[in-house]
Design brief:
The structure is a homodimer. By secondary structure, the first copy, chain A, is an alpha/beta fold. Chain A is built from 15 helices and 19 strands. Chains A and B meet through helix 1, helix 6, strand 12 and helix 12 of A and helix 1, helix 6, strand 12 and helix 12 of B.
Chain lengths: ~425, ~425
């Protein structure tokens, strides 16, 4: 029987994992795909570098990705290079040349998804991207095919393994710089970790999930994104005393004012579902009035876990299954998650002099921000005395307005850091959903 | 466009949930199914009892399930009665009459799955059963369609919400009888809770999962099943001091000697993935050398969560998607999980007299069972002094042989209780999977 012929763009960790996995499970893959699979061509940046390949795998290797996308002897193109503009061109070319495409690239789809999904649908081709969100977790498949019936009211994800791992290390008392260096040394953080730490990597993934949950596309500027760069071990130590865990959460909520979309650090109850998501693991929590909560947790990074999802997409495409998301759809009202009320943690560092607390409390009072508790541990450096404060429920934007009143005033030694306290435990202790009569 | 006509066998909590959900989301369902859906006939035990139905839903209601299965005006039969022999006859009749079947009944499929799946395949009909395992968790869909590529080495499930809820209450110090009565009052435990507490409900579900994971059927007597009936608050209190949680686990492991299948209470590390599965929630942990660990957690009981999965199956059937599991397949070697070594907890109750510990230690030593620690708290009743003991790794069957040596000897005031200590934390702290070179 004719082989299903794969062309790979890129042969890094994930590409090697894909080739290795296809070789190791070739009989199972052939059975599931209905025909044998073969990697027949690979485009790489430096085709002169020697490449390790499994026995029996002898693809043409060159440095011409566009030629691969037009190659009539390729059935499916697997894009594993990353980036935005070049992959956009390649994916478009492959679809227009009548090939299905599988990609692990969230950035290109979050930025140009509308265009690329349209091209795919116009040409009757598949554009599958399971590995681009939460590597090994089949979250797209579950959202598209697997879910119990009933609308999703809320999605909460831990979608960036690097951030999650670093927060875990801060919890153990490691400094941010050391934690980042360790993640880089272990191959989990990019050499330029900006996308991970700033929250934008998770923001891209949230944009893709939003497309599937609400059936329409959102532009990246509709997502409120905050990073973890300013978190320190003293914040985590405060959280531990209150039985909280700190996670960088990507959140979609349906509210009366529209759909709110945000990424940023948030405290969750140490007993709640996402609290045990450690290291480079990712998780997605779905909530529905109908089916309650559903959590999926798995590896969010790594060569083989990502390759596993890429291969699952390849097998789907080979069987003609899987579906390219709809484009356009009803426009959806998007609102700022900063409008929702929540308790907040705020960490100040101030000079040790009279009146500091009065000034802080005064600025908050002027915006009607009510203080629930204050903690000022004994300080070693009189120029940088930490003050930890917990507010009563207040919209983030109101709290920000209050904090901006403190401005550069000679009292604070740095910008205050605020972290929302998510109401996860409210959800967890909710009783069983009653059945309609 | 013609309606897709549904016939319901049974109209209890889940049946009412299905009808309610179909009514509430009828436009979405029609869009997903490609045509409108209508519940046109329901068979119930007592057709004279008044039934609450949503507006616009006016099915024929009678007491003749077999006639419904043969009704030429029905496209799909939804079996929600439960039991084994009668549903076997109905499902068979419906498939032979050329109808697809959706069921939430694990018992009939665990017992007669081989026969019923064969009939379905012979008649080219679907027999879907997502709701029968872990209600709202789309575990069958994920195992059949969603998983990253790569074989599953191990599956660990919390599959019985009633047992999980009762263990949670024992942890809070409630007596077994009170915890059971509360679960029954809240509608979560059956009036005859034997199947839940004995582990057999989870055993049925494990049999169905095994069919999908290893591709063959297993008979129920190949599963080692133990219940939670003898667990007491003092056991949970001991676990808490050791940072353990007690869960009733359903486990499938591929070992060198074959596939081992078991259900029973086991201690897990309080920081491990399944530790935060509370109340009536279910969870499934999949482990693979390729993709690492994947956990799915959601409601394992309740009218609407179960109905949500039934409706998802109905929509799949309406689109001609979903797949009936393969039958037969390669026979697989099944081995006894009792052969695997693990640390064990043992709780004795003995009369307060000299030589008790010596006799216990002696019996264990005779079977080479090595003791790691012993704890004998101050007792209030001298005839029932508790002794808690933790062993070094030992196969369960060896430990059982040692405990049987103690037999009825006038020293113990009751049979010892042993609980395996699962090695979940070994898995959790395992480092990232390296990518093949």
């Amino acid at each position: 029987m004719d082989h299903y012929r794969l062309g790979l763009l890129g042969y890094g960790t994930v590409g090697q994992g894909v080739v290795e996995l296809l070789a190791r499970t070739q009989d199972e893959c052939a059975a599931r795909a209905g025909r044998p699979l073969a990697v027949t061509r690979i485009a790489v940046g430096d085709p002169t570098r020697p490449r390790s390949l499994p026995d029996g795998c002898a693809p043409r290797i060159d440095g011409d990705p566009l030629a691969l996308c037009h190659d009539p002897d390729i059935d499916l193109v697997v894009e594993l290079v990353g980036g935005v503009e070049r992959p956009r061109e390649w994916i478009r070319a492959a679809l227009e040349a009548g090939k299905d495409v599988v990609t692990a690239n969230k950035a290109v789809l979050a930025t140009h998804g509308e265009e690329l999904f349209t091209v795919a649908r116009e040409h009757g081709k598949l554009l599958l991207f399971e590995a681009s969100v939460a590597a090994a977790i089949p979250i797209l498949q579950v959202l598209q095919q697997g879910l119990p019936a009933g609308p999703i009211d809320r999605l909460t994800g831990i979608l960036n393994g690097t951030s999650n791992r670093i927060l875990g290390r801060l919890e153990q008392g490691m400094s941010f710089a050391d934690a980042l260096a360790e993640a880089q040394a272990d191959g989990f953080a990019e050499s330029d970790p900006t996308l991970d730490l700033s929250g934008w990597d998770a923001g891209h993934k949230l944009a893709l999930l939003t497309r599937l949950v609400v059936g329409t596309s959102v532009s990246l500027d509709q997502i409120r994104v905050e990073g973890i760069e300013r978190i320190e071990p003293i914040d985590l130590a405060f959280g531990e005393r209150h039985h909280w865990k700190l996670k960088s959460l990507a959140e979609l909520r349906r509210t009366e004012g529209g759909v709110s979309l945000g990424v940023g650090p948030a405290w969750i109850d140490a007993e709640s579902e996402l609290a045990t998501v450690h290291d480079e693991y990712n998780a997605v929590l779905l909530e529905s009035e109908t089916f309650g909560t559903l959590v999926l947790q798995g590896k969010g990074a790594g060569g083989l876990p990502t390759a596993g999802s890429v291969v699952a997409d390849i097998l789907r495409a080979a069987r003609g299954e899987g579906s390219t998301p709809a484009v356009a759809g009803e426009p959806v009202e998007i609102c700022d998650p900063g409008l929702d009320s929540a308790r907040h943690y705020v960490r100040f560092r101030a000079k040790d002099r009279p009146g500091v607390l009065a000034r802080i409390a005064g600025a908050l009072a002027e915006e009607d921000v009510s203080i629930a508790s204050v903690e000022q541990p004994e300080a070693t450096d009189p120029d940088r005395v930490p003050v930890h404060l917990v507010t009563h429920p207040v919209p983030t934007i109101t709290l920000d307005a209050a904090l901006s009143r403190l401005g550069p005033n000679g009292i604070l030694s740095e910008e205050p850091l605020r972290i929302r306290i998510a109401d996860t435990n409210v959800l967890r202790v909710k009783g069983p959903t009653p059945c309609p009569a």
